[in-house]
Amino acid sequence: MTTTSHAITATGLRKAYGDHVVLDGLDLAVAEGTVYALLGPNGAGKTTTVQILSTLVAADGGHITVGGHDPARDPRAVRARIGVTGQFAAVDAKLTGEENLILMADLHHLGRQEGRRRTAGLLERFGLTDAAQKLPEAYSGGMRRRLDLAMTLVGDPRIIFLDEPTTGLDPRSRHAMWQIVRELVADGVTVLLTTQYLEEADQLADRIGVLDGGRLVAEGTAEELKRLVPGGHVRLRFADPAEYERAARALHGTALDDEALTLQIPGDGSARELKSLLDRLEAEAIEAESVSVHTPDLDDVFFILTTEHSHQPAADADVRKEALR
Amino acid sequence: MSTLSYAVADSATMLRRNLRHALRYPSMTIPVVAIPVVMLLLFVYVFGNALGSGVGPGAEGHYVDYVAPGIILMATTYGSVSVAVSVCSDMTEGIVNRFRTLSISRAAVLNGHVLGGAVQTLFSVVLVVGAALLAGFRPNATPLEWLATAGLLTLVVLALTWLAADMGLRARTVEAASNAPTPLTFLPFLGSAIVPTDSMPTAVRWFAEYQPFTPVTETLRGLLMGTEIGNSALIAVAWCLGLTVLGYFRARSAYDKG
């Protein structure tokens, strides 16, 4: 594994708290200027991974480089290259937004003038200029998270860790955050983000690692991961049990659900395939109440991978699915 | 800039942050002044006549001159409560993890808290001295003795502040942090702050004579009122330096572990 083209590498990363194994031989490689999403349920080891890579916590074993340096041996060199925005807003609640940013500028030894210039620029960019003189308690969740990220950016880091950057945000704030991340990547910044939202990983990440039980259970682009699960299907629902019976006979070989009066026909959901399906129903004079096309998404990947890995019963997987939404 | 000048610059930045906190939220500083002042009023105007006759011949009616140095010292112990609380509340919030991932001097965060806390406490001490003067305290110290008094109080405050910072770091909750320094606030009572130690029962007297606040109280009283100091000054300074070193290294190790 070369470190020249990778901003972050980890091999065989291990961490345990007492008997509780959090990371069990995690391998990770994040190319420079890309977004890598670590996706996993609560307790999968996402935050611990970020804490180790960002010098907050020491690993028990494994080899790590961040920006070409080992966080354990040369933490200062790593800290000079990274920015971290944690799950809980790391802002000083007793300082105004502007004072928080100036504090960061002072700690980066930017000098008074440059510090003020960069502060004003970040306030403007993150839509916080009007709230600059207010304390964070007057901020909405989204504003606080933006201030948090703005503080991370004061030092112009080349590698940014975002630990669940949109957890607890409303959809509008979430989309605003995504836009900010995209702009960062356009500037050539490397982003490692953890998330439990599959859509977030799908939207932002160049590569996704699915973390479960302290190791990666799958890795690849969103498209590659989606290919891991069986293909999509068309779902037909019927209002009348008689119609349903006739359709089931006409389209034999499909998955049935007698209670919901639905049929699942394997397929890719293309217009041609859909037309031929509807033509067959038409020919038999069968009327379906609704037709829906289901393509595999990261949800399918996620639940198949993480449940199989941890040998959880399917009913439990549904509960987890609900909890994650 | 060198590593050292970065450390100084980062500590100064953190000091500014802590002083700004103190100015914006004075609710933690007010008790540091208010409690000793209430004690002063109690001991001078309520218990003063009875206690005055106990502290020695000629002190009747001038008990304030005996008790004021002890009350001033008390203000330094209440300052430690506010430091422990501010350190602990900082550690329980996300901001400290941000500081830990910055390429700044590791000592800067604690230096800022301790220096900021020390400045606050010394400011409170000045107010308590003012209150004592209003209550009739008439020290006969020379300017040099006043300077020595300020120096000794600064050493006491630094020692207590580092100890309090360590308590704040090791406390799990802010409530626990506010309770941890309570024993410190009682120590002046179990010394010669209110009454001479030779009026106490044997066991208490033994403790009182060997605990750090007694030599500090005796030195302050000597500097301000001209009483006998003897070797109290040396012992007081030794205690302060020893406790500062202890508090500093304990706090640094607690911060690095956290």
Written description of the protein model:
The complex is a heterodimer of chains A (325) and B (258). Chain A has 325 residues and is of the alpha/beta class. In chain A, 39% of the residues lie in helices and 25% in strands. Chain A folds into two domains: 6-221, 3-Layer(aba) Sandwich (Rossmann fold), CATH 3.40.50; 233-294, 2-Layer Sandwich (Alpha-Beta Plaits). Chain A has a six-stranded mixed β-sheet, sandwiched between helices. The model of chain A is unreliable at 308-325 (pLDDT under 50). By secondary structure, chain B is mostly helical. Chain B has one domain. Chain B has helices at 3-24, 30-46, 48-54, 63-91, 95-100, 108-134, 143-170, 174-179, 182-186, 202-210, 213-225, 232-257. In chain B, helix 2 (30-46) runs parallel beside helix 6 and helix 7 (143-170) packs parallel to helix 12. Chain B is elongated. The model of chain B has no long low-confidence stretch (mean pLDDT 90). The chains are: A alpha/beta (325), B mainly alpha (258).
Keywords:
heterodimer; A: 325 residues; alpha/beta; Rossmann fold; Alpha-Beta Plaits; 2 domains; six-stranded mixed beta sheet; four-stranded antiparallel beta sheet; 12 helices; disordered C terminus; B: 258 residues; mainly alpha; 76% helix; 0% strand
Layout of strands and helices, then pairs:
The complex is a heterodimer of chains A (325) and B (258).
Chain A: E1 6-17, E2 20-31, E3 35-39, H1 46-53, E4 61-66, H2 75-79, E5 82-85, H3 97-107, H4 112-125, H5 141-153, E6 159-163, H6 171-186, E7 190-195, H7 198-204, E8 207-212, E9 215-220, H8 222-226, E10 233-237, H9 241-250, E11 255-257, E12 262-266, H10 271-283, E13 290-294, H11 298-310, H12 314-324
Parallel strand pairs in A: 3-7, 3-8, 5-6, 6-7
Antiparallel strand pairs in A: 1-2, 1-4, 8-9, 10-12, 10-13, 11-12
Helix pairs in contact in A: 3-4, 3-5
Chain B: H1 3-24, H2 30-46, H3 48-54, H4 63-91, H5 95-100, H6 108-134, H7 143-170, H8 174-179, H9 182-186, H10 202-210, H11 213-225, H12 232-257
Helix pairs in contact in B: 1-6, 2-4, 2-6, 4-6, 4-7, 4-11, 6-7, 7-11, 7-12, 11-12
